[in-house]
Here is the input.
Amino acid sequence: MSEIPESFVTADGGHFPSVGLGTWKIPDAVLPDLIPAAVDLGYRHFDCACDYGNEQAVGAGLKKAIASGACQRDDLWITSKLWNTYHHPDHVRAACEKNLSDLGLDELDLYLIHFPVTLAHVPIEKRYPPGWFFDPEAENPAMKPARVPVADTWGAMEGLVEAGLVKRIGVCNFGTALIRDLQSYARIQPSVLQVEMHPYLTQQRLLRFCQEEKIVVTAFSPFGASSYVPLNMAGANESVLDDPEVISIAGAKGKSPGQIVLRWAVQRGTVTIPKTSTVAHLKDNIEIFDFDLSDAEMTRIDRLDRNRRFNDPAEFGEAAFNTFYPIFD
Here is the structure.
């Protein structure tokens, strides 16, 4: 059986667990018990964000898990993200301190720029999380873009590392051109890129680029459409888990389709962060280290690529927030 790591090593020597729990859309009421259950099953990586609106509940779960003796803080990898309204250097530290306060932590293992999207500042005391609308009560609510250079935001992110608030920094939803530009001036190079990746959006060239640059890639939405169907951002017939090729390989391996997709993600060298609200799926999602996929099976899944992106501000920005804001074009 081919070896896949239970953690990937970042450029600074950090051990980044290859399977984590994504907390997007997990209800507050579930998290205080779900997090300890995940820890008991072996999870040590939790992916969070201001915009998810549930970091206080995540924090309650982390506190409960640590208090039980099931883990220590140093055993865990906690990621959070800088929201679009806090990109100006004057607001980066306050935003990070709010993440830390809600999570009940003194330091993050990883802090990411959530999108290459800069929106007008909304004070924390006015509305938190601020969301996408500048003024939800306006007659025609919309996003309000602001022009803040990535270089300015990144400089403030570097300041968080130097202040001991975060161990390392990275980006989400960036392409190769933006990353190359960032690398040209960054004093602290990005450790991680988090992007949408699944069998219908394999992003082979972006993955190869990051691997050559020693940037660890985290694949969000590893199951593809499942999180987006309820938001009318995907069709029910677009589920990777219902794909005949995935089902065929799952049957041959005696595994679930979800386990096949997650094994493919980690075996190709990406960290994966499936989301679930149930203990049964938590267990299923982390049990991917007792089998492997052959080169032929990996290729069969690679060939499912449709370049189908579900999380695209050019689409949902206009549909949901009355603002056309492409970032991938």
